[in-house]
Amino acid sequence: MFLGGALAGRTGVKVSPRFTGGEVARVKDHGAYRTSVHRPVFYGLFGERREGFVQVDWEPVTALPESIREEIDVFGDGASGFYISLNTADGRAGYENKPPGVRGNPKPARLRSGWAIRIKVRNPGK
Question: Cα(20)–Cα(93) distance, rounded to whole angstroms?
Answer without folding.
Answer: 21
